[in-house]
């Protein structure tokens, strides 16, 4: 992705604290999250692993589109293996792993190797014998159709998410989206979103959502190559074919889930391949209608964190209400002598992300 750095990226400063941060020359940053010492003396309620943008392919190393970042296609499998080994050796076994999308690279399609590559990474993950929750990214759609994905190992959808007794709005649409929620422990809920529900890669003609996506793109991007951003800078860059958005049906469903979570006094972590906060990512990686999700998060006190992938440089932002927006560094652009994964230790009052390699340690206090 482009390397235009937003001034807030990787900052732990909330909107209200910005001036103070500048005044203190950034010292607040280390005080608040990054280097705050992990307290190992208290047992976490549960833990989970996070990893993003593995983009495995059995091909030689290459580069991103702009030739600014190297991509280690084969080595990404080794980094996944090392992450898995580390998770397996944890004193507290992670309850699950969040795989934030783009598990194999689009190049596999070109070499007719999509199935084989998927089998390779899934077998690697299976060795850990830890439940994996998969998010779908653009590279999933370069390799597979939505129907294929639904019947693949990348469909980790669970049926009722522990809310079976409640009335969560059902979606009438014939165009199914890949969304679900689950509760790994009392008072905690994870929501998996489908950021390519509206998109030109996740939807195909003649579906209604494909035409809706085309309309959105035509309103914002006049380039012949729709992967080419409409503007060189700023938020409008996000209107590219390799991004997507959330359908109204999906947003209505999310509203229902968050309303119930609020009532049950749960803490909710939302995950999606595409980031939704402009200060947590290069704006070219944002979901098309990110504002809709942001305003919904602001309206529901249950949400504590939003996790995404897609921007391989990663990013972090804590908004004025204390919600954490974390974009995880991508494995594919991580040199062989480094790492890019994390383990999150969940406590009553916070989540502690223990990062490895390019992923920083962070204490994520609940709002
Ligand atoms: N500025 C650009 N202009 C045209 N095509 C681009 C541009 N940036 C990316 N692409 C294309 O869009 C697709 C996704 O971009 P890429 O950077 O590879 O995304 P990812 O980080 O998800 O791998 C690729 O096919 C890439 O060649």
Automatic annotation (TrEMBL):
Annotated ranges, domain Calcineurin-like phosphoesterase: 47-313
Organism from which the protein derives: Megalops atlanticus (Tarpon)
Reactions catalysed: ADP-D-ribose + H2O = D-ribose 5-phosphate + AMP + 2 H(+); CDP-glycerol + H2O = sn-glycerol 3-phosphate + CMP + 2 H(+); CDP-choline + H2O = phosphocholine + CMP + 2 H(+)
UniProt keyword annotation of Zinc present: yes
InterPro entries according to UniProt: Calcineurin-like_PHP, Metallo-depent_PP-like, MPP_ADPRM
Gene3D superfamilies per record: 3.60.21.10
Main EC class the enzyme belongs to: hydrolase
UniProt lineage: Eukaryota, Metazoa, Chordata, Craniata, Vertebrata
Needed co-factor(s): Mg(2+)
Coiled coil: none
The protein's name in its UniProt record: Manganese-dependent ADP-ribose/CDP-alcohol diphosphatase
Keywords of the record: Hydrolase, Metal-binding, Zinc
Family: Belongs to the ADPRibase-Mn family.
Assembly behavior: Monomer.
EC numbers on record: 3.6.1.13, 3.6.1.16, 3.6.1.53
Gene Ontology MF terms: 2',3'-cyclic-nucleotide 2'-phosphodiesterase activity; ADP-ribose diphosphatase activity; CDP-glycerol diphosphatase activity; manganese ion binding
């Amino acid at each position: 992705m482009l390397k235009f750095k937003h001034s807030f990226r990787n900052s732990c400063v909330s909107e209200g604290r910005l001036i103070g941060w500048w005044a203190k020359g950034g010292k607040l940053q280390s005080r608040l999250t990054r280097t705050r010492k992990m307290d190992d003396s208290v047992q976490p309620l549960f833990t989970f692993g996070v990893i993003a943008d593995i983009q495995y392919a059995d091909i030689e190393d290459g580069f991103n589109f702009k030739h600014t970042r190297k991509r280690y296609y084969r080595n990404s499998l080794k980094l996944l293996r090392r992450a898995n080994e580390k998770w397996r050796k944890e004193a507290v076994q992670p309850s699950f792993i969040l795989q934030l999308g783009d598990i194999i690279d689009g190049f596999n399609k070109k070499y007719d190797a999509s199935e084989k590559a998927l089998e390779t990474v899934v077998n690697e993950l299976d060795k850990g014998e830890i439940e994996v929750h998969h998010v779908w990214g653009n590279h999933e759609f370069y390799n597979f159709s939505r129907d294929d994905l639904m019947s693949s190992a990348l469909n980790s959808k669970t049926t009722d998410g522990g809310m079976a007794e409640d009335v969560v709005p059902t979606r009438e649409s014939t165009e199914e989206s890949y969304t679900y929620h689950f509760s790994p422990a009392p008072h905690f809920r994870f929501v998996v979103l489908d950021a390519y529900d509206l998109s030109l890669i996740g939807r195909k003609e003649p579906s209604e959502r494909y035409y809706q996506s085309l309309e959105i793109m035509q309103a914002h991007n006049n380039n012949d190559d729709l992967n080419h951003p409409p503007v060189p800078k700023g938020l409008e860059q996000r209107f590219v074919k390799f991004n997507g958005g959330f359908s109204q049906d999906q947003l209505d469903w999310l509203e229902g889930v968050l309303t119930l979570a609020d009532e049950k006094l749960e803490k909710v972590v939302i995950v999606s391949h595409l980031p939704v906060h402009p200060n947590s990512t290069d704006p070219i990686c944002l979901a098309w209608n990110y504002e809709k999700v942001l305003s919904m998060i602001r309206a529901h006190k249950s949400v504590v964190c939003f996790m995404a992938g897609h921007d391989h440089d990663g990013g972090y932002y804590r908004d004025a209400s204390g919600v954490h927006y974390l974009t995880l560094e991508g494995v594919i652009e991580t040199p062989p002598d480094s790492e890019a994964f994390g383990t999150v230790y969940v406590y009553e009052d916070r989540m502690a992300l223990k990062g490895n390699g390019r992923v920083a340690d962070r204490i994520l206090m609940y709002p």
